[in-house]
Batch of 3 targets.
Target 1
Amino acid sequence: MEGFSPDRYSVESAAKQSSISSGGRNQDRKEFLRRFVDSEILKANLKDWFEDIAKRNMSPAFDVPFELIDLQKFDYALEGIQFQQLIRMPSAIYASTSSNVEGNAYLALEDFLHTSVNSLWEAFWGHENDLMPFYVSSLYEGNMRFYQAEKAIAKGKVGGLCASAIMLKNPRHPQGKWDDIVELALLRPDVGSLASVEDDSKPRLSIMGDALFLALRVLLSRSISRSNIPLSLNSVFVLLVDSQNGSVLIVEGDLNKLEVDLNNVYESAAAWFKDHSQIAISPVDRIWNKLGNANWGDIAALQVLYATFHSIMQYAGMPKNTIEDLAADHSSRLQTRRIERQLGDTRVNGNNGLLRFQHRNASPEIVEVQEESIKVDSEKSVKLEVGNVLLVEDSSWQNGYRINEVLNDGEIPFYIASSVEDPGNALFLYVGSHPSQLEPAWEDMKLWYQVQRQTKVLSVMRQKGLSNKYLPQLTASGRIVHPGPCRKPSSGRNCDHPWCGTPVLVTSPVGRTVADMVRAGQFGADEAIRCCHDCLSALSASASAGIRHGDIRPENIICVKSGLRQLYYVLVGWGHAILEERDRPALNLHFSSTSALQEGKLCPASDAESLVYMLYFSSGGDLPVLDSVEGALEWRETSWSRRLIQQKLGDISAVLKAFADYVDSLCGTPYPVDYEIWLRRLRRHIREEGSGKEVDTSG
């Protein structure tokens, strides 16, 4: 007979207690949900909170769910996608001819949601033979069940409908369950009229209360569902619409922090919203025109589509065709349009609009000449030449920078420059897109990440006191000072000069990219080990401040000379860094982590995983032809399972092979990288060239 094992007993007991605890928690939540049926009581419990928010006079009271730059990128991706709403949204123009405007409104809303989810699915996820796994239905308030609007109208229940929803198809429950909800749309007649101008055109809190009520019911239903629902589904989008206008609301939060008091379910819910949820809402704007057609290309419909895109992604994972993939076609479409219109190279102000900055002798002089050395037009960024001097200012200073070298990362230009006050100190200088461009090219979005977004990230690093020689340093940031008078209007906007207000970022140190070293055959075993150490040191420092890189690739690592033989590596290109939960990393089929490709988010080991891919490819690993996210994920799974990456790095160094094994064990888990252990191990393998002594690698 097998002997009694206290350890085994304790493990089994703990597992049993955990199971009982989990089962009990689900039962409590199920009962909580059964009692949580009246939105008016919830709004009464939230009234003081709403009033307190209003009294604080914060503008805006809540964050917006999406950044404008992400919406612009999404807009470019949708250029080749057709959306067609066949059932028009009833409005005043139909009032005299329709006897059942409310019923028609739900029919139109369902058709709008159907064409949205169907077109997005086909463009981003599906193949021709793939059936869309979603359908659209509406919610009947009386029994909290779902009916398609057409059937509700036939049964005379249209007056009790309160919302529509995109649902996940469920063969066992064809009528739909609450945990099948992918996205909700709350239809109210007064979303636009109740929008408060003082509150940045956000919906009134009475409507928000209804949305919060429905959102919590969805989150609770998901948490107790027996279906195979991803654990990451802790957020839900709710669309707030009337017959003309709309807004997007997102609720996100950890339900484990919900205090389940079955005697006071509404007080518990209100406390959770106040203390443990994150709420973001977009301004109310027009979705449907007077004829009832959706303005698919306008900001309101675009935000709704973007919310639907993210809702689909929660269930279906990362799309086969990414936003970046589809948006990249914008430039070619733009060029095709220019050819159709028979446009040649155009300039904003003809020859008179061309400026050149020249540096003569020791003193900088800015002159205006009739040359084409610097091209400025509405579709291309500012181009500088060697010898130009750029005058940059912020709120308190002005400084001139002389262009010493023009570089290109394969997509956009940047420069090596030096301050006219300190010509011996080399600096990287980045010039952004002109802020007045209403329709920036895809290239200008990359410039926005390179300049404006990276400036923000480096400023946050400085504010948090990060000091590490393997991180770039923010030397200066400001805007170009153009020659001649600046006729800036009193509103604070830029004048009509094509350079006025163009942002500039200056960083240090300067070095060669790993991509250049690989092309020159100068990235060997010693370089790979040192590069791994230095990048991990940079990641360790940034992680201590809650910042992750999100875009590690050979173009974003530079090798810096320090003295005659001393070399070290600096991790640059922080424009896509993750500062908060809603930020999204850059997507690269070769270098992005598995988590980034699957979920559009980083796990704690994602940057380390990308670093391993960078070392693998830069050290001679086979570079596969990847044309889709699906193919990239398949390559990763095959390479890790067959240990191809570990074997290749093992040919270079045992410590790199061990590091790859370690990263493989962490991929997709919530466990952080133990940077200190690996920095110590790598440090033991770094030797000063020709001396055999260990190098001081302290940051």
Target 2
Amino acid sequence: MSAKIDWNSIRNLAQRVLEGDEPLELTEGTRALLLRTAQEVGISQPDAEDALRSVTTASTLLKEVVRRIDDGADRLDDARLAMYDLRDQGDLEGACKQMRDVLAVEVVPVYRKRAEGMLEEMTQLAEVAASGRVSASLPDRDQLAALERRIQQGHALELAEELCALLRRTAPTAGIIEAETEEALKSPGGAEALMRMILSRFREGKKRITRALFRMTSLRDAGNLDGARQQMRDVLAVEVVPLYREMAEEQLRGLDGPPPES
């Protein structure tokens, strides 16, 4: 099976045949497309070859292939969103269950692989929350959030070398200077306060830029460019997280540039 999967061709065929009036013609190219895609969605080569013996069974195969692609995509997207919501609420076991439920029914290999990857990440985050030990393979801020929940459950923060390194990496991304970081790392209490500050700045900054972008877009579309610009200026007046400052600055540059061609 090819490492790169492109389902545009099978979708186009399904649209012409299943949604339109075009008859299915089992040309060499169509047979090859159906045979390859069937295997990509978990249908064995013998079963696919058997289905290609007639137009009727080939049409049924086409329907099943597209159903697996669409149902699997919807299932994985719904589970992914639920997983992240549960993760953000601190329910890592519930987050893991979302992907376990997908794997209990999913047959499309590429969707299974993605679900397995997300399950592995959530399982490792749960281990961070349970043990207090950070991992080199997980996103930094996700681990800080897991450690924050661990502290909220009454566990003490251990100032291990790996944790100090993680805090030193993430503090600048929240606009915290090195001297402030090093002072905080002199004690577990200071490290806890530093961790809360990092997470708080990102949470508040995300809310701020999201609201401002929504208002900016509405004002811009209404023709009020000055009002749209002011939304980004208001963000820059208070924002300290470099990522969100860069987003606001980029939007301002776009608003100050020439209008897009219609």
Target 3
Amino acid sequence: MICLTTKFSNSEIVRTRDPKVLEGFDAVLDVGGVYDPSRDRYDHHQKGFEEVFGYGFNTKLSSAGLVYKHFGKEIIAKELQLGEDHPNVQRLFLAIYKNFMEAIDAIDNGINQFDTDKPPRYVNTTNLSSRVGRLNLDWMDPNQSPEKENEAFQQAMAVAGSEFLDSVRFHAKSWLPARSIVMECIADRYDTDPSGEIMVLKRFTPWKLHIFELEEEMKVDPPIKYVLYESLD
């Protein structure tokens, strides 16, 4: 992710835990035991680390979450070709954290999805963290060389980076336009029915992603009870 920024776009990725080697790097991620954005140090393993994303999110950040917290707006703004202070950049910054990044933070920090001590009813190994984990060298592989490890690491970076960009582009090209349509239809609901409880979509839109959040944001009262749209048949 950090390579998507202007500052680090041409950076070389080096894997090491050697403190002396780390000292000379422009940025250090996920190792080193230091979180200091002024020096581009983004580790989360050190004792006492409790950094969260903010904006109402309370999940402790992983190194990926730290990078997103400090560089996410820049990456999103470049994708949208807007300034970082544009409202749509802020909307996507929060939405992508909620819908993509927070799960990575939680899994990396061993935080359960539900507040219960009961064991899960099934095992889920299809999430991004699991898929990246499976790219580690198998212990039965006779070739455990550093070169082979680096090859696997490059594959993992490609998978994670691709899925992050897919999320950014989905939110930019699909999620955000749908939100605008639903917002407009909510605003026009009294033109449909004087009760204000019926919303008509002008075109098919994935409205369920947005309606509850927009009802709260737009202080819709009474709440919408019916959503109508033309059949696709």
